């Protein structure tokens, strides 16, 4: 085991973090991270880990490099395992080599975990292969911002200009006019294609293609700023043909997900696949019950029930947690009919070997009732409903009306997520939110307990509101808002598709 791990976080897309990097982040005592390392990676930190931000961007250094070196040495000497998370690759313009030398001088051990470097990834996400048999057989990575204390430049502009390699400049946007002028004066064709890719691989990626003689003026006109990669060479002519990432329908759109954190990841992943900039603002917390004696008693007598109706993924998970604590398994449900309120709940059951006997066509309680009645639930039918402690009563009330004996079995409880709305308000005011999504009545009610309705109203009609179904929409209307988006199917994938179509 090393004292310090120098980890490449990649250029920003969370999916480009390596498995080895994730493994270390989950076990390290201290996580030291940079400006260009995606904040989402902090979610991998183990509970109680110390998180230290040492970000550096264009002249704004939270902590200068020598102090970062001292920090790593000091904390490692305390016996702490440190994950040093750096944007891109630590050994490609990441100053990882300098940090490694300091650690060796201090008698400490280290391990390098390479990362995907922006000089390859950002062009690839913009449709630009840095090598191509019909264009070039080599690529040169160049810093666009040399160490100002060096006595001699490391650049040989004549070689760069005369080379047919693809040239990839890191950290060079401020010096773009100089870079273009040096290449042209060295003999590079002024018509050579040049591309800029800003925030490469992230949801807010943007790119442009120009020529060497025009790129500085065009970049200034379009206000292209750091962090951007500059690519020089004929491969940039492939940008329009191969630019796959920027064709995603929600690219750059800010989408707020209000689901509980335990439920949000699947929805967030679908949105990211469509290019969205997802902000998780969980309004609900999913909590275990303080006492499960009633659940264990119900499971012990489950043979007396005809149907078991699961109304959520969380209901399935918490029910099974109790089963496993009792050293029981799926066989407990042998002989019972099982219903799931929607496909996600049915999938959660399937993971445990249970094929639902009934999943309604529309995923609200009213349709579950109709389907169960059509399948013989009526006078004297005993129904067990594992669910949240507080939930809509439509399902049990309607089943009781036809004579069913319904027992509500709380297996978890929901609460208000106490995280403040400050980050959301900041993004709203910055114009970074395009959609706010609601997936249940509880998310609506808790959202407006955390954020006053008037605060959201200030940003309409630019900010659109999306509801998963009519029940949620009705709750939203109670706060004075009309949903802009509502899918025909009341599912998370359908909601994501509706956002993309909007």
TrEMBL record:
Pfam families (UniProt xref): HEM4 (PF02602), TP_methylase (PF00590)
Pathways per UniProt: Porphyrin-containing compound metabolism; siroheme biosynthesis; precorrin-2 from uroporphyrinogen III: step 1/1; Cofactor biosynthesis; adenosylcobalamin biosynthesis; precorrin-2 from uroporphyrinogen III: step 1/1
Keywords, comma-separated and alphabetical: Cobalamin biosynthesis, Lyase, Methyltransferase, Porphyrin biosynthesis, S-adenosyl-L-methionine, Transferase
GO molecular function per UniProt: uroporphyrin-III C-methyltransferase activity; uroporphyrinogen-III synthase activity
Source organism superkingdom: Bacteria
Domain Tetrapyrrole biosynthesis uroporphyrinogen III synthase as annotated: residue spans: 267-496
GO biological process: cobalamin biosynthetic process; methylation; siroheme biosynthetic process
InterPro entries: 4pyrrol_Mease, 4pyrrol_Methylase_sf, 4pyrrol_syn_uPrphyn_synt_sf, 4pyrrol_synth_uPrphyn_synth, 4pyrrole_Mease_sub1, 4pyrrole_Mease_sub2, CobA/CysG_C, Siro_Cobalamin_biosynth
Keyword Magnesium (UniProt): no
Enzyme category, top tier: transferase
Signal peptide feature range: none
All copies of domain Tetrapyrrole methylase, residue ranges: 4-215
Stated family: Belongs to the precorrin methyltransferase family.
Identification of the protein by name: uroporphyrinogen-III C-methyltransferase
Organism of this sequence: Desulfobaculum xiamenense
């Amino acid at each position: 085991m090393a004292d310090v791990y120098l980890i490449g976080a990649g250029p920003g897309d969370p999916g480009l973090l390596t498995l080895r990097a994730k493994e270390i982040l989950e076990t390290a005592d201290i996580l030291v991270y940079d400006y260009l390392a995606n904040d989402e990676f902090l979610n991998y930190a183990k509970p109680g880990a110390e998180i230290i931000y040492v970000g550096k961007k264009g002249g704004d250094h939270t902590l200068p490099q020598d102090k970062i070196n001292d920090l790593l040495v000091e904390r490692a000497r305390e016996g702490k395992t440190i994950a040093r998370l750096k944007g891109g690759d630590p050994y490609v313009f990441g100053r990882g080599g300098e940090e490694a030398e300091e650690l060796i001088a201090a008698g400490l051990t280290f391990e390098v975990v390479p990362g995907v470097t922006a000089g390859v990834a950002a062009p690839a996400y913009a449709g630009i292969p840095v090598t191509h048999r019909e264009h070039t057989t080599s690529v040169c990575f160049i810093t666009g911002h040399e160490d100002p204390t060096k006595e001699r430049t490391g650049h040989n502009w004549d070689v760069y200009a005369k080379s047919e390699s693809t040239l990839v400049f890191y950290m060079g946007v401020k010096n773009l006019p100089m870079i273009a002028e040096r290449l042209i004066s060295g003999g590079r064709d002024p018509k050579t294609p040049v591309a800029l890719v800003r925030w490469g691989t992230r949801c807010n990626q943007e790119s442009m293609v120009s020529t060497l003689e025009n790129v500085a003026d065009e970049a200034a006109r379009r206000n292209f700023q750091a962090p951007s990669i500059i690519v020089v060479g004929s491969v940039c002519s492939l940008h329009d043909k191969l630019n796959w990432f920027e064709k995603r329908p929600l690219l750059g759109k800010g989408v707020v997900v209000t689901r509980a954190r335990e439920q949000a990841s699947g929805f967030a992943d679908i949105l990211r696949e469509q290019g969205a900039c997802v902000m998780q603002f969980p309004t609900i917390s999913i909590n275990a019950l303080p006492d499960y004696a009633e659940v264990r008693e119900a499971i012990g007598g489950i043979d007396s029930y005809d149907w078991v109706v699961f109304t959520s993924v969380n209901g399935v998970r918490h029910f099974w947690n109790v089963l496993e604590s009792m050293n029981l398994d799926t066989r407990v449900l042998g002989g019972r009919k099982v219903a799931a309120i929607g496909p996600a709940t049915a999938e959660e059951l399937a993971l445990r070997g249970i094929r639902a006997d009934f999943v309604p066509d529309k995923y609200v309680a009213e349709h579950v009732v109709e389907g169960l009645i059509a399948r013989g639930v009526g006078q004297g039918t005993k129904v067990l409903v594992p669910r949240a402690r507080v939930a809509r009563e439509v399902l049990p009330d309607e089943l009781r009306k036809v004579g069913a004996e319904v027992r509500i079995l709380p297996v978890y409880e929901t609460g208000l997520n106490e995280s403040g709305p400050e980050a959301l308000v900041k993004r709203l005011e910055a114009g970074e939110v395009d959609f706010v999504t609601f997936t249940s009545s509880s998310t609506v009610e808790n959202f407006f307990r955390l954020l006053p309705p008037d605060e959201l109203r200030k940003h309409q009609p630019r900010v659109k509101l999306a509801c998963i179904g009519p029940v949620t929409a009705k709750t939203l209307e109670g706060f004075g808002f009309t949903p802009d988006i509502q899918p025909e199917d009341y599912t998370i994938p359908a909601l994501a598709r509706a956002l993309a179509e909007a």
